[in-house]
Write the C-alpha coordinates for this entry.
Amino acid sequence: MMNKETIGYQKYFVGQKWYDRNREKVRQGLLLMPAILIILSLVIYPLIYSISRSFTDFNLGMPEIHFVGIRNYIMAFKDIRFLQSLRTTIIFSISTTIGGLVIGYGTALLLQRNFIGRKVLTVLLIIPMMTTPIVVGIIWMLLFQPDYSVINSLLSLVGINGPQWLQNSIWALVAIIVADLWQWTPFFTIVLLSSLLNIPLDIVEAAKVDGASNWKMIRYVITPIISPIIVVAVLIRLIDSFKVFDVVFVMTNGGPGNATEVMSYYIYRTGLGYLNMSYSMAMSFIFLIILIGSSTILIRKLLRT
Amino acid sequence: MKINIYRKIISKIGLVISFAVLLTFSLFPLYWVFLTSIKAKKDWLTLPVKFIFKPTLEHWKNVLLSSDFIQYYKNSLIIAIGVACVILVVGTMAAYSLARGKYKFRDNISFFILSQKMMPAIAIVLPIYLIASRFHAIDHLETLIFINVAFNLPLAVWMLKGYIQSLSLSIEEAALIDGCSQFGAFIKIGIPQIVPGIMSTILLIFIYTFNEFFFALILSGTKARPVSVAVMNFLPTGVRGTMFGEAAAASILIMIPTLIFAIFMQRYLVKGISLGAVKE
Protein backbone atom coordinates (compact mmCIF):
# COMPACT_ATOMS: atom_id res chain seq x y z
CA MET A 1 0.00 0.00 0.00
CA MET A 2 1.29 3.42 -0.87
CA ASN A 3 0.08 6.32 1.14
CA LYS A 4 0.38 9.95 0.19
CA GLU A 5 3.64 10.37 1.91
CA THR A 6 5.47 7.66 0.06
CA ILE A 7 4.14 8.92 -3.30
CA GLY A 8 5.42 12.35 -2.38
CA TYR A 9 8.68 10.82 -1.39
CA GLN A 10 8.91 8.91 -4.64
CA LYS A 11 8.20 12.04 -6.67
CA TYR A 12 10.83 13.91 -4.74
CA PHE A 13 13.09 10.99 -5.30
CA VAL A 14 12.55 11.00 -9.06
CA GLY A 15 13.28 14.72 -9.17
CA GLN A 16 16.32 14.22 -7.04
CA LYS A 17 17.58 11.53 -9.36
CA TRP A 18 17.14 13.73 -12.38
CA TYR A 19 18.93 16.54 -10.57
CA ASP A 20 21.77 14.27 -9.53
CA ARG A 21 22.23 13.10 -13.05
CA ASN A 22 22.13 16.58 -14.55
CA ARG A 23 23.58 18.57 -11.70
CA GLU A 24 26.48 19.95 -13.70
CA LYS A 25 24.25 20.84 -16.62
CA VAL A 26 21.86 22.73 -14.34
CA ARG A 27 24.69 24.61 -12.71
CA GLN A 28 26.26 25.46 -16.05
CA GLY A 29 22.90 26.69 -17.28
CA LEU A 30 22.40 28.84 -14.18
CA LEU A 31 25.75 30.53 -14.70
CA LEU A 32 24.56 31.70 -18.08
CA MET A 33 21.32 33.17 -16.72
CA PRO A 34 22.45 36.66 -15.62
CA ALA A 35 23.94 37.40 -19.02
CA ILE A 36 20.87 36.11 -20.83
CA LEU A 37 18.54 38.09 -18.55
CA ILE A 38 20.49 41.30 -19.13
CA ILE A 39 20.43 40.88 -22.88
CA LEU A 40 16.77 39.89 -22.97
CA SER A 41 15.60 42.76 -20.81
CA LEU A 42 17.82 45.52 -22.18
CA VAL A 43 18.16 44.58 -25.84
CA ILE A 44 15.50 42.13 -26.92
CA TYR A 45 12.58 43.57 -24.96
CA PRO A 46 13.21 47.14 -26.17
CA LEU A 47 13.57 45.79 -29.68
CA ILE A 48 10.17 44.05 -29.52
CA TYR A 49 8.66 47.14 -27.93
CA SER A 50 10.07 49.21 -30.76
CA ILE A 51 8.84 46.86 -33.48
CA SER A 52 5.35 46.78 -32.02
CA ARG A 53 5.23 50.58 -31.85
CA SER A 54 6.43 50.86 -35.43
CA PHE A 55 3.00 49.64 -36.59
CA THR A 56 1.24 52.54 -34.89
CA ASP A 57 1.13 56.30 -35.31
CA PHE A 58 2.90 56.81 -31.99
CA ASN A 59 4.19 60.35 -31.74
CA LEU A 60 5.71 61.95 -28.66
CA GLY A 61 3.69 65.07 -29.29
CA MET A 62 0.33 63.27 -29.44
CA PRO A 63 -1.40 61.54 -26.56
CA GLU A 64 -3.25 58.85 -28.53
CA ILE A 65 -1.91 55.80 -30.31
CA HIS A 66 -3.63 54.11 -33.25
CA PHE A 67 -2.73 51.00 -35.14
CA VAL A 68 -1.79 51.89 -38.71
CA GLY A 69 -0.40 48.64 -40.11
CA ILE A 70 2.63 48.93 -42.32
CA ARG A 71 2.06 52.57 -43.23
CA ASN A 72 5.34 53.66 -41.64
CA TYR A 73 7.27 51.12 -43.68
CA ILE A 74 5.65 52.20 -46.93
CA MET A 75 6.36 55.78 -45.99
CA ALA A 76 10.04 54.98 -45.46
CA PHE A 77 10.48 53.60 -48.94
CA LYS A 78 8.78 56.66 -50.41
CA ASP A 79 10.71 59.07 -48.20
CA ILE A 80 13.37 60.66 -50.37
CA ARG A 81 15.31 61.81 -47.34
CA PHE A 82 15.43 58.27 -45.98
CA LEU A 83 16.64 56.86 -49.29
CA GLN A 84 19.16 59.68 -49.49
CA SER A 85 20.45 58.85 -46.02
CA LEU A 86 20.75 55.23 -47.10
CA ARG A 87 22.77 56.33 -50.12
CA THR A 88 24.97 58.62 -48.04
CA THR A 89 25.60 55.81 -45.58
CA ILE A 90 26.51 53.38 -48.35
CA ILE A 91 28.87 55.87 -50.00
CA PHE A 92 30.46 56.67 -46.67
CA SER A 93 30.76 53.08 -45.63
CA ILE A 94 32.20 51.76 -48.88
CA SER A 95 34.70 54.56 -49.38
CA THR A 96 36.01 54.45 -45.85
CA THR A 97 36.30 50.67 -45.96
CA ILE A 98 38.05 50.52 -49.32
CA GLY A 99 40.28 53.48 -48.51
CA GLY A 100 41.17 51.96 -45.18
CA LEU A 101 41.89 48.59 -46.74
CA VAL A 102 44.19 50.01 -49.40
CA ILE A 103 46.16 52.32 -47.11
CA GLY A 104 46.12 49.85 -44.24
CA TYR A 105 47.29 46.92 -46.34
CA GLY A 106 50.03 49.06 -47.84
CA THR A 107 51.19 50.12 -44.40
CA ALA A 108 51.07 46.54 -43.15
CA LEU A 109 53.24 45.40 -46.06
CA LEU A 110 55.77 48.11 -45.25
CA LEU A 111 55.76 47.28 -41.55
CA GLN A 112 56.20 43.61 -42.26
CA ARG A 113 59.90 44.04 -43.05
CA ASN A 114 62.30 43.78 -40.21
CA PHE A 115 63.91 47.07 -39.26
CA ILE A 116 64.95 48.96 -36.16
CA GLY A 117 62.14 50.82 -34.47
CA ARG A 118 59.37 48.81 -36.07
CA LYS A 119 57.54 48.24 -32.81
CA VAL A 120 57.56 51.92 -31.87
CA LEU A 121 56.43 52.87 -35.35
CA THR A 122 53.55 50.41 -35.19
CA VAL A 123 52.36 51.82 -31.89
CA LEU A 124 52.57 55.38 -33.22
CA LEU A 125 50.64 54.46 -36.33
CA ILE A 126 47.77 52.83 -34.47
CA ILE A 127 47.21 55.64 -31.98
CA PRO A 128 44.31 57.14 -33.97
CA MET A 129 42.33 53.92 -33.59
CA MET A 130 42.36 54.37 -29.82
CA THR A 131 41.12 57.94 -29.91
CA THR A 132 37.65 58.62 -28.56
CA PRO A 133 35.28 58.89 -31.56
CA ILE A 134 33.77 62.13 -30.33
CA VAL A 135 37.26 63.59 -30.04
CA VAL A 136 38.04 62.44 -33.58
CA GLY A 137 35.12 64.58 -34.67
CA ILE A 138 36.38 67.57 -32.72
CA ILE A 139 39.93 67.18 -34.04
CA TRP A 140 38.87 67.10 -37.66
CA MET A 141 36.32 69.84 -37.27
CA LEU A 142 39.17 71.94 -35.93
CA LEU A 143 41.42 70.99 -38.85
CA PHE A 144 38.73 71.65 -41.42
CA GLN A 145 37.73 75.10 -40.15
CA PRO A 146 37.44 77.28 -43.24
CA ASP A 147 39.16 80.53 -42.37
CA TYR A 148 41.77 80.25 -39.73
CA SER A 149 42.78 76.72 -39.90
CA VAL A 150 45.47 74.50 -40.90
CA ILE A 151 44.34 72.38 -43.83
CA ASN A 152 43.44 75.25 -46.11
CA SER A 153 46.46 77.13 -44.91
CA LEU A 154 48.72 74.26 -45.90
CA LEU A 155 46.86 73.80 -49.18
CA SER A 156 47.41 77.45 -50.03
CA LEU A 157 51.15 76.90 -49.63
CA VAL A 158 50.95 74.60 -52.62
CA GLY A 159 48.72 77.05 -54.39
CA ILE A 160 45.43 75.23 -53.93
CA ASN A 161 42.49 77.27 -52.79
CA GLY A 162 40.82 74.88 -50.38
CA PRO A 163 37.05 74.56 -50.39
CA GLN A 164 34.79 75.61 -47.52
CA TRP A 165 35.02 72.07 -46.27
CA LEU A 166 32.15 71.62 -43.84
CA GLN A 167 29.92 74.14 -45.58
CA ASN A 168 30.03 72.47 -48.97
CA SER A 169 27.75 69.49 -49.47
CA ILE A 170 30.26 67.35 -51.36
CA TRP A 171 33.37 68.30 -49.41
CA ALA A 172 31.60 67.86 -46.09
CA LEU A 173 31.09 64.20 -46.89
CA VAL A 174 34.72 63.94 -47.96
CA ALA A 175 35.77 65.55 -44.68
CA ILE A 176 33.82 62.99 -42.69
CA ILE A 177 35.27 60.14 -44.71
CA VAL A 178 38.77 61.49 -44.11
CA ALA A 179 38.11 61.70 -40.37
CA ASP A 180 36.84 58.14 -40.30
CA LEU A 181 39.74 56.93 -42.43
CA TRP A 182 42.14 58.57 -40.03
CA GLN A 183 40.65 56.71 -37.13
CA TRP A 184 40.10 53.29 -38.70
CA THR A 185 42.89 52.73 -41.22
CA PRO A 186 45.08 51.49 -38.34
CA PHE A 187 42.53 48.75 -37.78
CA PHE A 188 43.37 47.26 -41.17
CA THR A 189 47.07 47.91 -40.64
CA ILE A 190 47.27 46.02 -37.42
CA VAL A 191 44.90 43.17 -38.25
CA LEU A 192 46.60 42.52 -41.59
CA LEU A 193 50.07 43.01 -40.13
CA SER A 194 49.52 40.34 -37.52
CA SER A 195 48.33 37.89 -40.14
CA LEU A 196 51.24 38.79 -42.46
CA LEU A 197 53.65 38.00 -39.66
CA ASN A 198 52.02 34.61 -39.27
CA ILE A 199 52.70 33.52 -42.84
CA PRO A 200 55.08 30.55 -42.77
CA LEU A 201 58.50 31.68 -43.97
CA ASP A 202 59.15 28.68 -46.23
CA ILE A 203 56.32 29.66 -48.55
CA VAL A 204 57.80 33.11 -49.04
CA GLU A 205 61.29 31.65 -49.48
CA ALA A 206 60.02 29.16 -52.06
CA ALA A 207 58.42 31.95 -54.06
CA LYS A 208 61.67 33.92 -53.90
CA VAL A 209 63.64 30.96 -55.20
CA ASP A 210 61.18 30.72 -58.07
CA GLY A 211 62.11 34.31 -58.87
CA ALA A 212 58.90 36.09 -57.98
CA SER A 213 59.20 39.87 -58.00
CA ASN A 214 57.91 41.87 -55.04
CA TRP A 215 54.70 42.76 -56.78
CA LYS A 216 54.06 39.23 -57.97
CA MET A 217 54.79 37.98 -54.51
CA ILE A 218 52.14 40.25 -53.00
CA ARG A 219 49.64 39.60 -55.73
CA TYR A 220 49.93 35.83 -56.11
CA VAL A 221 51.44 34.55 -52.87
CA ILE A 222 50.75 36.75 -49.87
CA THR A 223 47.30 38.13 -50.64
CA PRO A 224 45.68 34.74 -51.33
CA ILE A 225 47.05 33.39 -48.05
CA ILE A 226 45.62 36.14 -45.88
CA SER A 227 42.47 36.69 -47.92
CA PRO A 228 40.17 35.13 -45.28
CA ILE A 229 41.38 37.71 -42.76
CA ILE A 230 40.96 40.48 -45.31
CA VAL A 231 37.35 39.43 -45.84
CA VAL A 232 36.64 39.37 -42.12
CA ALA A 233 38.29 42.76 -41.56
CA VAL A 234 36.36 44.30 -44.44
CA LEU A 235 33.06 42.94 -43.14
CA ILE A 236 33.72 44.18 -39.61
CA ARG A 237 34.52 47.64 -40.89
CA LEU A 238 31.59 47.72 -43.31
CA ILE A 239 29.15 46.92 -40.52
CA ASP A 240 30.72 49.30 -38.02
CA SER A 241 30.95 52.17 -40.46
CA PHE A 242 27.33 51.60 -41.41
CA LYS A 243 26.41 52.53 -37.86
CA VAL A 244 28.42 55.77 -37.87
CA PHE A 245 26.97 58.56 -35.74
CA ASP A 246 29.44 60.35 -33.46
CA VAL A 247 31.68 61.89 -36.10
CA VAL A 248 28.75 63.15 -38.13
CA PHE A 249 27.05 64.52 -35.04
CA VAL A 250 30.07 66.59 -34.08
CA MET A 251 31.41 67.66 -37.45
CA THR A 252 28.38 68.53 -39.54
CA ASN A 253 25.15 67.75 -37.71
CA GLY A 254 24.07 66.06 -40.91
CA GLY A 255 24.48 69.27 -42.87
CA PRO A 256 24.87 71.30 -44.90
CA GLY A 257 21.25 70.70 -45.76
CA ASN A 258 21.19 66.97 -45.28
CA ALA A 259 24.23 66.17 -47.36
CA THR A 260 25.95 64.16 -44.66
CA GLU A 261 22.88 62.81 -42.96
CA VAL A 262 23.65 59.13 -42.39
CA MET A 263 20.96 56.65 -41.40
CA SER A 264 21.61 56.58 -37.66
CA TYR A 265 21.50 60.32 -37.67
CA TYR A 266 18.27 60.66 -39.66
CA ILE A 267 16.55 58.08 -37.46
CA TYR A 268 17.75 59.86 -34.34
CA ARG A 269 16.55 63.18 -35.66
CA THR A 270 13.13 61.83 -36.65
CA GLY A 271 12.56 60.26 -33.27
CA LEU A 272 13.91 62.83 -30.84
CA GLY A 273 13.95 65.91 -33.02
CA TYR A 274 10.61 65.69 -34.83
CA LEU A 275 9.16 63.40 -32.12
CA ASN A 276 7.81 61.02 -34.76
CA MET A 277 8.71 57.94 -32.75
CA SER A 278 6.76 55.30 -34.65
CA TYR A 279 8.26 56.31 -37.96
CA SER A 280 11.80 56.40 -36.62
CA MET A 281 11.25 52.99 -35.03
CA ALA A 282 10.09 51.60 -38.35
CA MET A 283 13.19 53.00 -40.02
CA SER A 284 15.45 51.63 -37.34
CA PHE A 285 13.91 48.20 -37.92
CA ILE A 286 14.67 48.43 -41.64
CA PHE A 287 18.18 49.51 -40.72
CA LEU A 288 18.48 46.53 -38.41
CA ILE A 289 17.40 44.12 -41.12
CA ILE A 290 20.05 45.50 -43.49
CA LEU A 291 22.66 45.01 -40.77
CA ILE A 292 21.46 41.53 -39.84
CA GLY A 293 21.76 40.47 -43.45
CA SER A 294 25.37 41.51 -43.67
CA SER A 295 26.39 40.47 -40.18
CA THR A 296 24.98 36.96 -40.48
CA ILE A 297 27.49 36.37 -43.23
CA LEU A 298 30.24 37.72 -41.00
CA ILE A 299 29.37 35.60 -37.98
CA ARG A 300 29.06 32.43 -40.02
CA LYS A 301 32.54 33.16 -41.35
CA LEU A 302 33.88 33.75 -37.85
CA LEU A 303 32.36 30.60 -36.45
CA ARG A 304 33.86 28.57 -39.23
CA THR A 305 37.43 29.71 -38.57
CA MET B 1 75.80 45.18 -59.57
CA LYS B 2 75.67 48.96 -59.53
CA ILE B 3 72.03 49.00 -60.64
CA ASN B 4 71.16 46.73 -57.77
CA ILE B 5 72.68 49.11 -55.23
CA TYR B 6 70.83 52.04 -56.74
CA ARG B 7 67.60 50.10 -56.55
CA LYS B 8 68.22 49.31 -52.92
CA ILE B 9 68.90 52.94 -52.09
CA ILE B 10 65.84 54.08 -53.95
CA SER B 11 63.63 51.57 -52.20
CA LYS B 12 65.07 52.62 -48.83
CA ILE B 13 64.30 56.26 -49.60
CA GLY B 14 60.83 55.28 -50.74
CA LEU B 15 60.27 53.43 -47.49
CA VAL B 16 61.36 56.39 -45.39
CA ILE B 17 59.19 58.79 -47.36
CA SER B 18 56.12 56.60 -47.09
CA PHE B 19 56.56 56.20 -43.37
CA ALA B 20 57.02 59.95 -43.02
CA VAL B 21 53.76 60.55 -44.86
CA LEU B 22 51.89 57.94 -42.83
CA LEU B 23 53.25 59.24 -39.54
CA THR B 24 52.32 62.80 -40.43
CA PHE B 25 48.81 61.70 -41.32
CA SER B 26 48.33 59.83 -38.08
CA LEU B 27 50.09 62.14 -35.65
CA PHE B 28 49.76 65.64 -37.03
CA PRO B 29 46.07 66.02 -36.05
CA LEU B 30 46.90 65.11 -32.46
CA TYR B 31 49.84 67.50 -32.42
CA TRP B 32 47.62 70.23 -33.80
CA VAL B 33 45.04 69.70 -31.07
CA PHE B 34 47.76 70.04 -28.51
CA LEU B 35 48.98 73.28 -30.11
CA THR B 36 45.45 74.63 -30.20
CA SER B 37 44.99 73.94 -26.53
CA ILE B 38 47.93 76.18 -25.60
CA LYS B 39 47.40 78.86 -28.20
CA ALA B 40 46.15 82.27 -27.18
CA LYS B 41 43.30 83.86 -29.09
CA LYS B 42 45.46 86.42 -30.90
CA ASP B 43 47.67 83.67 -32.29
CA TRP B 44 44.68 81.68 -33.45
CA LEU B 45 43.23 84.45 -35.58
CA THR B 46 46.16 84.86 -37.92
CA LEU B 47 46.98 83.71 -41.40
CA PRO B 48 49.05 81.80 -42.29
CA VAL B 49 48.61 79.62 -39.21
CA LYS B 50 51.29 79.91 -36.58
CA PHE B 51 53.35 76.97 -35.43
CA ILE B 52 55.53 78.98 -33.08
CA PHE B 53 53.96 81.22 -30.48
CA LYS B 54 53.99 82.00 -26.80
CA PRO B 55 52.02 79.21 -25.09
CA THR B 56 49.28 79.92 -22.61
CA LEU B 57 47.52 77.73 -20.06
CA GLU B 58 44.38 79.84 -20.08
CA HIS B 59 42.25 77.18 -21.82
CA TRP B 60 43.41 74.43 -19.51
CA LYS B 61 42.53 76.60 -16.54
CA ASN B 62 39.09 77.30 -17.97
CA VAL B 63 38.39 73.63 -18.45
CA LEU B 64 39.75 72.35 -15.17
CA LEU B 65 38.87 75.17 -12.77
CA SER B 66 35.94 77.19 -13.99
CA SER B 67 33.72 74.48 -15.44
CA ASP B 68 32.05 71.29 -14.22
CA PHE B 69 34.38 69.23 -16.34
CA ILE B 70 35.87 67.37 -13.37
CA GLN B 71 32.39 66.37 -12.21
CA TYR B 72 31.57 64.95 -15.64
CA TYR B 73 34.90 63.21 -15.75
CA LYS B 74 34.03 61.54 -12.48
CA ASN B 75 30.70 60.40 -13.94
CA SER B 76 32.50 58.83 -16.87
CA LEU B 77 34.91 57.01 -14.61
CA ILE B 78 32.10 55.72 -12.38
CA ILE B 79 30.15 54.45 -15.37
CA ALA B 80 33.16 52.82 -17.00
CA ILE B 81 34.36 51.17 -13.80
CA GLY B 82 30.84 50.03 -12.94
CA VAL B 83 30.40 48.47 -16.34
CA ALA B 84 33.79 46.78 -16.14
CA CYS B 85 32.99 45.26 -12.74
CA VAL B 86 29.55 43.94 -13.70
CA ILE B 87 30.88 42.51 -16.93
CA LEU B 88 33.81 40.90 -15.16
CA VAL B 89 31.40 38.83 -13.04
CA VAL B 90 28.50 38.23 -15.39
CA GLY B 91 30.68 37.83 -18.46
CA THR B 92 33.06 35.32 -16.89
CA MET B 93 30.16 33.21 -15.64
CA ALA B 94 28.47 33.20 -19.02
CA ALA B 95 31.70 32.56 -20.88
CA TYR B 96 32.52 29.62 -18.61
CA SER B 97 29.08 28.19 -19.17
CA LEU B 98 29.35 28.55 -22.94
CA ALA B 99 32.89 27.22 -23.11
CA ARG B 100 32.45 24.19 -20.88
CA GLY B 101 28.71 23.53 -20.72
CA LYS B 102 27.32 20.32 -22.12
CA TYR B 103 23.67 21.30 -22.47
CA LYS B 104 21.56 21.50 -25.60
CA PHE B 105 21.50 24.60 -27.81
CA ARG B 106 24.82 25.78 -26.45
CA ASP B 107 26.14 26.80 -29.85
CA ASN B 108 22.86 28.46 -30.74
CA ILE B 109 23.07 30.55 -27.59
CA SER B 110 26.66 31.47 -28.42
CA PHE B 111 25.55 32.57 -31.84
CA PHE B 112 22.66 34.54 -30.37
CA ILE B 113 24.94 36.37 -27.95
CA LEU B 114 27.57 37.22 -30.54
CA SER B 115 24.92 38.40 -32.98
CA GLN B 116 23.97 41.13 -30.47
CA LYS B 117 27.31 42.73 -31.28
CA MET B 118 25.85 43.81 -34.59
CA MET B 119 22.82 45.49 -33.04
CA PRO B 120 22.77 49.16 -34.04
CA ALA B 121 22.51 51.38 -30.99
CA ILE B 122 19.84 53.47 -32.65
CA ALA B 123 17.41 50.53 -32.78
CA ILE B 124 17.62 50.12 -29.01
CA VAL B 125 18.09 53.60 -27.69
CA LEU B 126 14.70 55.04 -28.64
CA PRO B 127 12.62 52.37 -26.88
CA ILE B 128 15.06 52.40 -23.96
CA TYR B 129 14.58 56.14 -23.73
CA LEU B 130 10.79 55.73 -23.60
CA ILE B 131 10.90 52.89 -21.09
CA ALA B 132 13.45 54.66 -18.91
CA SER B 133 11.48 57.88 -18.86
CA ARG B 134 8.41 55.96 -17.72
CA PHE B 135 10.42 54.63 -14.77
CA HIS B 136 12.01 58.06 -14.16
CA ALA B 137 15.38 56.46 -14.87
CA ILE B 138 16.67 59.09 -17.28
CA ASP B 139 19.78 60.92 -16.12
CA HIS B 140 20.85 58.25 -13.65
CA LEU B 141 24.29 56.73 -13.67
CA GLU B 142 22.77 53.28 -13.06
CA THR B 143 20.78 53.44 -16.29
CA LEU B 144 23.90 54.23 -18.29
CA ILE B 145 25.81 51.46 -16.54
CA PHE B 146 23.14 48.88 -17.33
CA ILE B 147 22.72 49.80 -20.96
CA ASN B 148 26.48 49.78 -21.50
CA VAL B 149 26.73 46.40 -19.80
CA ALA B 150 24.07 45.00 -22.09
CA PHE B 151 25.76 46.40 -25.14
CA ASN B 152 29.30 45.30 -24.33
CA LEU B 153 28.47 41.92 -22.86
CA PRO B 154 28.48 40.05 -26.20
CA LEU B 155 32.04 41.12 -27.02
CA ALA B 156 33.24 40.33 -23.50
CA VAL B 157 31.62 36.90 -23.45
CA TRP B 158 33.03 36.11 -26.86
CA MET B 159 36.57 37.09 -25.91
CA LEU B 160 36.48 35.40 -22.50
CA LYS B 161 35.06 32.24 -24.01
CA GLY B 162 38.08 32.07 -26.30
CA TYR B 163 40.47 32.37 -23.38
CA ILE B 164 38.64 29.73 -21.34
CA GLN B 165 38.63 27.32 -24.24
CA SER B 166 42.39 27.69 -24.51
CA LEU B 167 42.84 26.31 -20.96
CA SER B 168 43.85 22.72 -20.55
CA LEU B 169 41.42 20.76 -18.40
CA SER B 170 43.82 18.33 -16.78
CA ILE B 171 44.97 20.60 -13.94
CA GLU B 172 41.43 21.45 -12.97
CA GLU B 173 40.51 17.79 -12.97
CA ALA B 174 43.17 17.22 -10.35
CA ALA B 175 41.40 19.74 -8.13
CA LEU B 176 38.09 17.96 -8.63
CA ILE B 177 39.53 14.95 -6.86
CA ASP B 178 40.26 17.18 -3.88
CA GLY B 179 36.53 17.81 -3.59
CA CYS B 180 36.07 21.09 -5.46
CA SER B 181 32.99 21.58 -7.62
CA GLN B 182 33.74 22.06 -11.30
CA PHE B 183 33.11 25.80 -11.20
CA GLY B 184 35.05 26.05 -7.94
CA ALA B 185 38.00 24.35 -9.57
CA PHE B 186 37.73 26.76 -12.48
CA ILE B 187 37.79 29.77 -10.16
CA LYS B 188 40.69 28.50 -8.08
CA ILE B 189 42.84 27.07 -10.85
CA GLY B 190 41.53 28.12 -14.25
CA ILE B 191 41.09 31.84 -13.72
CA PRO B 192 44.62 32.56 -12.47
CA GLN B 193 45.95 31.15 -15.73
CA ILE B 194 43.94 33.53 -17.91
CA VAL B 195 44.33 36.72 -15.89
CA PRO B 196 46.02 38.59 -18.79
CA GLY B 197 43.14 37.68 -21.09
CA ILE B 198 40.54 38.74 -18.56
CA MET B 199 42.38 41.99 -17.87
CA SER B 200 42.59 42.91 -21.52
CA THR B 201 38.91 42.11 -22.06
CA ILE B 202 37.90 44.26 -19.11
CA LEU B 203 40.17 47.12 -20.15
CA LEU B 204 38.79 47.04 -23.67
CA ILE B 205 35.26 47.25 -22.25
CA PHE B 206 36.42 50.11 -20.02
CA ILE B 207 37.74 51.99 -23.05
CA TYR B 208 34.59 51.39 -25.08
CA THR B 209 32.38 52.59 -22.25
CA PHE B 210 34.53 55.60 -21.53
CA ASN B 211 34.36 56.54 -25.21
CA GLU B 212 30.67 55.83 -25.56
CA PHE B 213 28.69 58.81 -26.78
CA PHE B 214 25.35 57.83 -28.26
CA PHE B 215 23.59 56.37 -25.21
CA ALA B 216 25.07 59.06 -23.03
CA LEU B 217 23.76 61.77 -25.32
CA ILE B 218 20.19 60.50 -25.17
CA LEU B 219 19.96 59.01 -21.68
CA SER B 220 21.71 61.67 -19.61
CA GLY B 221 20.76 65.13 -18.48
CA THR B 222 23.00 67.43 -16.50
CA LYS B 223 23.40 65.19 -13.46
CA ALA B 224 24.71 61.94 -14.92
CA ARG B 225 26.33 63.43 -18.01
CA PRO B 226 29.60 61.73 -18.85
CA VAL B 227 32.55 63.57 -20.25
CA SER B 228 32.07 62.43 -23.86
CA VAL B 229 28.85 64.45 -23.99
CA ALA B 230 30.07 67.26 -21.76
CA VAL B 231 32.91 68.10 -24.13
CA MET B 232 30.31 69.34 -26.60
CA ASN B 233 29.71 72.29 -24.26
CA PHE B 234 33.09 73.66 -25.19
CA LEU B 235 32.48 73.64 -28.90
CA PRO B 236 31.86 77.05 -30.38
CA THR B 237 28.41 77.20 -31.91
CA GLY B 238 27.78 78.76 -35.25
CA VAL B 239 30.34 81.51 -35.34
CA ARG B 240 33.17 80.71 -37.69
CA GLY B 241 36.76 81.13 -36.69
CA THR B 242 35.96 81.07 -33.00
CA MET B 243 38.06 79.57 -30.30
CA PHE B 244 38.71 75.90 -30.01
CA GLY B 245 41.16 76.13 -27.12
CA GLU B 246 38.84 74.77 -24.45
CA ALA B 247 37.49 72.01 -26.67
CA ALA B 248 41.05 71.00 -27.52
CA ALA B 249 42.16 70.91 -23.90
CA ALA B 250 39.07 68.88 -22.94
CA SER B 251 39.65 66.49 -25.85
CA ILE B 252 43.17 65.77 -24.68
CA LEU B 253 41.95 65.09 -21.15
CA ILE B 254 39.40 62.61 -22.51
CA MET B 255 41.96 60.79 -24.62
CA ILE B 256 44.50 60.31 -21.84
CA PRO B 257 43.14 57.20 -20.06
CA THR B 258 42.26 55.35 -23.25
CA LEU B 259 45.57 56.14 -24.92
CA ILE B 260 47.55 54.96 -21.91
CA PHE B 261 45.66 51.68 -21.77
CA ALA B 262 45.74 51.25 -25.50
CA ILE B 263 49.47 51.69 -25.92
CA PHE B 264 50.25 49.16 -23.23
CA MET B 265 47.95 46.49 -24.49
CA GLN B 266 47.69 47.03 -28.22
CA ARG B 267 48.45 43.39 -28.93
CA TYR B 268 45.40 42.23 -27.00
CA LEU B 269 43.21 44.99 -28.33
CA VAL B 270 43.54 43.69 -31.85
CA LYS B 271 42.14 40.38 -30.79
CA GLY B 272 39.15 42.03 -29.20
CA ILE B 273 38.46 44.50 -31.96
CA SER B 274 38.64 41.83 -34.65
CA LEU B 275 36.36 39.54 -32.62
CA GLY B 276 39.19 37.09 -32.22
CA ALA B 277 39.48 36.55 -35.96
CA VAL B 278 43.22 37.06 -35.69
CA LYS B 279 45.13 34.35 -33.95
CA GLU B 280 48.22 35.32 -32.05
